[in-house]
Amino acid sequence: MPLAFHTDMPPAMLDDAPEARMLREAGIEVRGERCGSEDETIERAAGADAILNGLVPITARVLEALPGLKVVARYGVGVDNVDLQAATRCGVAIVHVPDYCVEEVSNQAFAFLLGWARQVPRWTEMLRAGRWGYDHIGAMRSVHGQTLGVIGLGRIGAATARKGAAFGMEVLGFDPGLGDDDLRARGAEPCTLEALLARSDYVSLHAPLLPATHHLIGAAELARMKPGAFLINTSRGPLVDEKALIDALQRGELAGAGLDVFETEPLPDDSPLRGMDQVLLSPHMGAQSPLATAKLRRSIAEEVTRALRGEWPLHVANPEVRANARLLA
Ligand code: NAD
Q1: Checking CA distances to 91, which of 76, 107, 171, 184 falls within 20 to 30 Å?
Q2: What class, spelled out in words, does domain 102-281 have in CATH?
């Protein structure tokens, strides 16, 4: 019987998990344990044909130590905790679920945008404190007629652009992976990064974390942004130089930010971001909703079942592995 090992879920949780039930019904044994180190992952996943993976790093050492491993299924869109090159070298297909939370993450970007423009957290705080007043009217901002710059026009960026247009915004787009016609088809006016930063009232990041996108928004880019602009990051924390962002916010160059992701997660207790009332925060939960979670779990079970039957999964993050994929051997 093939074995699927969950690197992030202890047995008690796994027993109730719908994806484990689906896998068992497909004749796959499922085991799991929260793995706190490379050594734990290697020891506990020994003999696994498949790994179900949340956030535990799947490094070259882990991949090289598991000679029977055919597939790693990552719960989510990003695969930046997996060494893709090493996986390809070892013949391991890395499966992800790129389409389960497109509406949720783009909604999270808009929750920040609208929450800040309408000053929802501050009004709530005022009324909770037993007051009725007009203190924050000066901080309120328009949405329609304003310019939204979208960086990365893939699935989530394109949904964000569509939502911006529905709110009557002018939408600019920067994505070096797409041609101008593709950007227009996704509802964005093609732009250089510099022009987008200089023209946008709201900038929303939807590029993946890659070596080339690390600190894509640093001090120089923040300085190019319109005074009074609002920055939204629901993609990955290291896309933004957080220290430079904090400096720009403290100097008042940037009016605010909406952040679901951070350079260090959990966000350190002493992060100045926690104390800034022009910054809206959430703990990397942009993908969450009951519908998205159900779709994610179902997709993970379906993809692992496909792979362990020797069929090519729908979403392989390292398609070049096909030439030497163990799951096809
Ligand atoms: P996608 O692959 O569909 O789109 C990413 C786009 O970014 C592509 O079009 C690509 O060409 C573009 N891109 C690459 N390099 C770029 C650069 N230097 N500048 C601008 N654009 C660049 O991905 P997606 O489904 O839209 O997701 C985007 C990101 O959102 C993911 O990589 C993931 O890190 C993040 N995400 C976060 C959450 C969350 O919970 N907050 C959930 C899901 C995804």
Answers
A1: 76
A2: alpha beta
